[in-house]
């Protein structure tokens, strides 16, 4: 299948290879949580809620009492994909993505400022259309910021792939299931440090570099957007306070 | 810039599912016109001073592609909605239009109307997808007109009556193809216009064909829904229709649902299906299965030929002899098992362009007017085709190519139009300037950088030589053989394009070769770099085509005959495979390297053979040859023990008159020991390379396999063999080769199959690839690149990361390879005809197959096979009785009988029963 039209250079959904899907973010969507956010990348829509920092509930899980314990739970809603199927909780894929998100967020949270406490991040996929783990990380970042948890930097994530000999930014579900390489990158935007890098196919070194470069560009664009959203949110809060 | 709009689509994948996809609408899509100042510039704009910018409808692209390919039509806008529709309906046409759009010499512009903010059209309630697309085309046309302003004329070309009417109502300039072409005033162009069928505009005024008077000749095809339903419940059977090459009124449909082949007899039962079409077949009741009356009665086409006698060919090889009346009477129950059916619908058409000539006819009165003519294809499997032409005088008595457009129930013959194309799809055009620009500067000499390259071994001191057919100029492989102090031999195979001992570094071709017997293969990859126009051209052509006295090259001549050719006494770059072998031909070690070689001799097979045979010669070169030969003999023996086939397929050789290009003499190509010696080392090099690349790239190696033949395929051979007491001789191994023809060796990508399927039956090798002829086969070029990457000399080109693309390349190579073979065969056939036309000959022949009304003979002297009839035309062989078991045909009451493998005297001459369709006729004397 032609994922990039050779005559016009457009992708199946009308984007150019280096274009992202439309982003949309909303902060404070779950009133109960300490921080929450809704994040959309095209048709992929996830919601994240953060509880904490609060007292460690299960002391057994605490490894180092001088640092905060970060926990993460990733779930896909039963209705998030085309066919509605009940998925068992804690399947391998969810467990892996939970772990990935936790590690990525841990790299940015200043855990040493919050000893004897725990932070819970819940991410739920409402609608899946490729790139869910990137969207979850971005949503988690927003939710953490909304909860006022101290962080080193904004963590953002974006995926890119390589199809029809072209590096493509932000794969949607059709492109993702094409079987080509799928590179997910997470970075600390200002510090320019990579916190996550995953790829599930073979790619020659030099091609890989251009593909990863593209994903990093995408991450930076997302970081700018997130910063804008947060700034606006802060302004709104300021107004409310008067 | 990004406007998102989602639309909802329902797809059926077992169950109904709602699919939601994003669809971005944008405002930055250029219109492609050079005169437009608002849009960004594009690479190949539509010309600024075009008389009109044409927007074409889907049906125009689908049916008038020959017209669009004509350079007179230019400045065409193709909407993406049109391209999508074309792609869904006819992939072949889509590929042609795609080639047109990417052709820089033509001004075809693709406008992505579906993603443009102003031209996107949402389906309205109750509107069919077709109507929506038509509306989208009109909206886009209108947008173009308003976007470009009044001084540019935008013209919608459509043959759809409804669309044209609506367009005119909406104030869009719209014309039919015919009226537009007429306005161009180029009469030749009108021939390319496909006459539209009844549903479209032009017919109504042209001819309102008194339908009552027209006779319906064929049954209507069943609607698609009925066919699918019928297939599911087993009433109909699906399969590919293959017309008997020797009897166009009989066809077979291989059906999986029955597990046997269904016979279709007569044109009316074939119901307008062409050879190669995928059809749905309904079985006739069993009591009609032997009825062969329908067979000839239905058609008035002069049946000049035998009906039954078919040589040993792919059409009937896998099964028993045709059931005929004579066999029915003699052994009534044994042959009645083949089901007979009739075609109820065509699922997929295989309409192509066909080569042939017009049936002779008187010139109609007013020349220049439209004349109807009947076209007779060279291929007898194709029915006559009706065409309309305005240049009848030009076309009569010429070889022309015609494309089929339609075949309705009212007409006996399909209708088509005249085009010009290349048969067998072989590209004979000269290389383009872009391609030639990729060539290294000439004259090419070895550069110091090549010598300094650490990956390139200097083998100029080694005694390398090549052995090739006489007159061969594209030498792509060479050998050397050096005795080592420990008593072993070093054998090298050095590759270029044929056997020669020059090392070539063709930067863009491939490198092979080395054995302590070195095999040096021309280093074509050194000159042919991936992704260059030269490489793309070579990949397209796939292979050089060898015709009698002529060659159509895959690569430009300077490369094939000079820079890459491992000629004698020049330094050339090569890719070498070097083995260390014991005197018992056991390989101790294998090494692969790029190299520089200097061939000391480019010999022909005859010369090499003479040297080996002349016991007085003891010079080092001759000793090398003899060493190689003895090693080759051991290797060959071993290979045969493993079960490799040695097929003496008869290759015909011509001596050509240099002035007239007419053949002067004809004979069988002689295989000498020297040929076998070279072949042996090339096989060994190929196998070694296959092992190496597969080890490094298990998923993306290009290999060659040959599936084992099934028992059925070998059955005719076994029957022949048993009738003579299992004594296989020349003609029967030919039969074996023919049986094996059904399971052809093919290229494939190693990731696509499991290891056990890699087997090459004919060579009895578990792995095989093509490495030794990079000058004339593109597969070898790919393998050179793989090997270079495996040796860490070069990077693996990106192509190899893309599985489907690599599979596509392999498929193209198989296709080109087959076409090249067919072209070579056709060339041999042509020259055979020319030869025997002036020289009717009496000669000895051997019977290879018995048929109901005659037998097939093989003429060893010329390597020709053909039918001999014992009964006059039309007679079904009633006088003769066939003994299937003993493969014998006898005339009851007389002592005359013929058995398989018997030698007979025959007379050969060329007759021309139909104009421009000469054939070689064999008669018994």
TrEMBL record, chain A:
Location in the cell: Cytoplasm; Nucleus, Nucleolus
One Pfam family named in its UniProt record: RNase_PH_C
Per the record, the major location class is cytoplasm
Q: Which SUPFAM superfamilies match?
A: Ribonuclease PH domain 2-like (SSF55666), Ribosomal protein S5 domain 2-like (SSF54211)
Q: Name one GO cellular component term.
A: nucleolus
Q: Which UniProt keywords apply?
A: Cytoplasm, Exosome
GO BP annotation list: nuclear mRNA surveillance; poly(A)-dependent snoRNA 3'-end processing; rRNA catabolic process; U4 snRNA 3'-end processing
**What residue stretches are annotated with the Exoribonuclease phosphorolytic domain?**
19-150, 153-218
Q: Name one GO molecular function term.
A: RNA binding
Stated family: Belongs to the RNase PH family.
State the protein's name.
Uncharacterized protein
From TrEMBL, chain B:
Name of this protein: Uncharacterized protein
- InterPro entries attached to this UniProt entry: Dis3_CSD2 (IPR041505), NA-bd_OB-fold (IPR012340), PIN-like_dom_sf (IPR029060), PIN_dom (IPR002716), RNase_II/R (IPR001900), RNase_II/R_CS (IPR022966), RNR_Ribonuclease (IPR050180), Rrp44_CSD1 (IPR033771)
Subcellular location as annotated: Nucleus
Residues annotated as domain RNB: 456-793
Record SUPFAM superfamilies: Nucleic acid-binding proteins, PIN domain-like
Q: Which GO terms describe its biological process?
A: nuclear mRNA surveillance of mRNA 3'-end processing; rRNA catabolic process; rRNA processing
Q: Is Membrane there in the keyword field?
A: no
**Residue ranges of the region described as Disordered:** 298-333
Q: Which organism is it from?
A: Leersia perrieri
Query: Which cofactor(s) does the record list?
Result: Mg(2+)
In terms of PROSITE patterns, this protein maps to: RIBONUCLEASE_II (PS01175)
Sorted keywords for this record are: Exonuclease, Exosome, Hydrolase, Magnesium, Nuclease, Nucleus, RNA-binding, rRNA processing
GO terms assigned for molecular function:
3'-5'-RNA exonuclease activity; endonuclease activity; RNA binding
Residue spans making up a coiled coil are none
PIN domain residues:
52-165
Q: Name one GO cellular component term.
A: nuclear exosome (RNase complex)
What PANTHER family does this protein map onto?
EXOSOME COMPLEX EXONUCLEASE RRP44, RIBONUCLEASE
Fetch the Pfam families from UniProt: OB_Dis3, PIN_4, RNB, Rrp44_CSD1, Rrp44_S1
Instruction: Return the similarity comment.
Output: Belongs to the RNR ribonuclease family.
Taxonomically, which superkingdom? Eukaryota
């Amino acid at each position: 299948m032609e994922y990039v039209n050779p005559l016009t250079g457009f992708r199946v959904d009308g984007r150019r290879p280096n274009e992202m899907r439309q982003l949309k973010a909303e902060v404070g969507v779950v009133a109960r949580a300490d921080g929450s956010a809704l994040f959309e990348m095209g048709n992929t829509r996830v919601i994240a809620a953060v509880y904490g920092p609060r007292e460690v509930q299960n002391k057994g899980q605490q490894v180092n009492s001088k640092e905060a314990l970060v926990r993460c739970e990733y779930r896909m809603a039963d209705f998030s994909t085309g066919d509605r199927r009940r998925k068992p909780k804690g399947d391998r894929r969810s467990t892996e993505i939970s772990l990935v998100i936790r590690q990525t967020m841990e790299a940015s949270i200043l855990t040493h400022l919050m000893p004897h406490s725990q932070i819970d991040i819940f991410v739920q996929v409402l609608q899946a259309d490729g790139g869910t783990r990137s969207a979850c990380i971005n949503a988690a970042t927003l939710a953490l910021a909304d909860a006022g948890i101290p962080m080193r930097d904004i963590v953002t994530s974006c995926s890119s792939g390589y199809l029809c000999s072209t590096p493509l930014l932000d794969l949607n579900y059709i492109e993702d299931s094409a079987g080509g390489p799928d590179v997910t990158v997470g970075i600390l935007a200002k510090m320019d440090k990579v916190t996550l890098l995953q790829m599930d196919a073979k790619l020659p070194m030099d091609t890989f570099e251009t593909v990863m470069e593209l994903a990093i560009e995408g991450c930076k664009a997302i970081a700018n957007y997130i910063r804008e959203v947060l700034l606006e949110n802060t302004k709104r809060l300021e107004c409310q306070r008067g | 810039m990004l406007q998102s709009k989602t639309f909802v689509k329902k797809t059926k994948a077992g169950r109904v599912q709602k699919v939601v996809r994003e669809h971005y609408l944008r405002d930055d899509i250029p219109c492609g016109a050079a005169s437009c100042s608002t849009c960004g510039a594009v690479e190949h704009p539509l010309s600024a001073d075009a008389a009109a910018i044409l927007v074409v409808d889907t049906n125009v692209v689908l049916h008038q592609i020959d017209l669009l390919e004509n350079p007179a039509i230019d400045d065409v806008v193709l909407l993406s909605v049109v391209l999508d529709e074309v792609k869904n309906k006819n992939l072949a046409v889509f590929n042609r239009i795609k080639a047109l759009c990417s052709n820089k010499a033509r001004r075809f512009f693709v406008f992505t109307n579906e993603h443009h903010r102003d031209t996107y059209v949402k389906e309205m309630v109750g509107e069919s997808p077709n109507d929506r697309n038509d509306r989208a085309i009109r909206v886009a046309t209108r947008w173009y007109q308003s976007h470009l302003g009044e001084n540019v004329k935008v013209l919608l070309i459509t043959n759809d009556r409804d669309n044209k009417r609506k367009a005119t109502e909406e104030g869009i300039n719209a014309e039919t193809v015919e009226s537009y072409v007429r306005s161009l005033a180029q009469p030749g162009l009108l021939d390319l216009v496909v006459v539209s069928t009844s549903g479209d505009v032009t017919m109504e005024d042209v001819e309102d064909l008194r339908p009552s008077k027209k006779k319906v000749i064929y049954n209507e095809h069943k609607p698609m829904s009925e066919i699918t339903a019928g297939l599911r419940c087993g009433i109909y059977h699906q399969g590919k229709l293959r017309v008997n090459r020797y009897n166009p009124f009989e066809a077979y449909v291989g059906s999986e649902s029955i597990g046997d082949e269904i016979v279709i007899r007569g044109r009316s039962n074939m119901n307008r299906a062409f050879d190669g079409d995928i059809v749905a077949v309904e079985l006739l009741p069993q009591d009609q299965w032997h009825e062969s009356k329908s067979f000839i009665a239905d058609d008035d086409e002069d049946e000049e030929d035998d009906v039954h006698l078919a040589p040993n060919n792919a059409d009937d090889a896998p099964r028993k002899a045709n059931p005929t009346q004579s066999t029915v009477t003699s052994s009534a129950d044994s042959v009645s098992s083949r089901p007979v059916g009739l075609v109820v619908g065509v699922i997929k058409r295989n309409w192509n362009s066909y080569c042939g000539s017009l049936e002779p006819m008187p010139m109609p009165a007013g020349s220049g007017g439209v004349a109807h003519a009947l076209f007779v294809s060279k291929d007898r499997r194709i029915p006559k085709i009706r065409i309309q032409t305005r240049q009848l005088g030009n076309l009569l008595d010429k070889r022309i190519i015609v494309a089929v457009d339609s075949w309705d129930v009212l007409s006996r013959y399909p209708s088509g139009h005249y085009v010009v194309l290349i048969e067998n799809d072989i590209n004979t055009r000269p290389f383009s300037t872009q391609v030639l620009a990729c060539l290294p500067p000439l004259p090419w000499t070895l550069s110091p950088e090549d010598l300094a390259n650490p990956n390139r071994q200097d083998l100029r001191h080694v005694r390398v030589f090549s052995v090739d057919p006489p007159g061969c100029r594209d030498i792509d492989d060479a050998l050397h053989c050096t005795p080592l102090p420990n008593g072993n031999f070093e054998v090298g195979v050095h590759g270029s394009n044929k056997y020669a001992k020059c090392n070539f570094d063709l930067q863009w071709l491939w490198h092979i070769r080395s054995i302590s017997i070195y095999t040096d293969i021309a280093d074509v990859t050194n000159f042919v770099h991936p992704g260059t126009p030269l490489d793309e051209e070579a990949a397209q052509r796939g292979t050089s085509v060898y015709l009698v006295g002529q060659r159509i090259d895959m690569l430009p001549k300077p490369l094939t005959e000079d820079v890459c050719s491992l000629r004698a006494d020049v330094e050339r770059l090569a890719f070498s495979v070097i083995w260390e072998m014991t005197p018992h031909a056991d390989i101790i070690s294998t090494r692969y390297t790029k190299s520089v070689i200097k061939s000391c001799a480019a010999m022909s097979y005859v010369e090499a053979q003479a040297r080996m045979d002349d016991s007085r010669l003891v010079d080092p070169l001759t000793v090398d040859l003899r060493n190689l030969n003895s090693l080759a003999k051991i290797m060959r023996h071993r290979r045969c023990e493993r079960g490799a086939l040695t097929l003496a397929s008869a290759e015909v050789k011509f001596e050509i008159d240099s002035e007239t290009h007419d053949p002067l003499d004809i004979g069988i190509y002689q295989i000498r020991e020297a040929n076998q010696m070279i072949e042996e080392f090339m096989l060994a090099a190929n196998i070694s390379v296959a092992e190496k690349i597969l080890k490094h790239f298990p998923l993306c190696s290009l290999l060659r396999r040959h599936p084992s033949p099934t028992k059925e395929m070998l059955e005719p051979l076994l029957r022949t063999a048993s009738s003579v007491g299992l004594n296989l001789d020349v003609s029967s191994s030919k039969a074996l080769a023919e049986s094996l023809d059904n399971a052809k060796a093919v290229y494939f990508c190693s990731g696509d199959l499991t290891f056990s399927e890699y087997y090459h039956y004919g060579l009895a090798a578990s792995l095989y690839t093509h490495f030794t002829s990079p000058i004339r086969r593109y597969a070898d070029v790919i393998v050179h690149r793989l090997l270079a990457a495996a040796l860490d000399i070069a990077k693996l080109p990106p192509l190899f990361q893309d599985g489907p693309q690599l599979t596509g390349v392999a498929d193209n190579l198989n296709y080109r390879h087959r076409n090249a073979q067919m072209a070579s065969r056709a060339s041999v056939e042509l020259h055979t005809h020319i030869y025997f036309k002036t020289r009717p000959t009496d000669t000895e022949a051997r019977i290879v197959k018995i048929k109901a009304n005659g037998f097939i003979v093989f003429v060893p002297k010329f390597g020709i096979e053909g039918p001999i009839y014992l009964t006059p035309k039309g007679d079904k062989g009633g006088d003769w009785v066939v003994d299937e078991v003993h493969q014998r045909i006898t005339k009851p009451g007389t002592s005359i009988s013929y058995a398989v493998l018997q030698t007979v005297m025959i007379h050969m001459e060329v007759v021309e029963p139909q104009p421009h369709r000469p054939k070689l006729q064999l008669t018994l004397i």
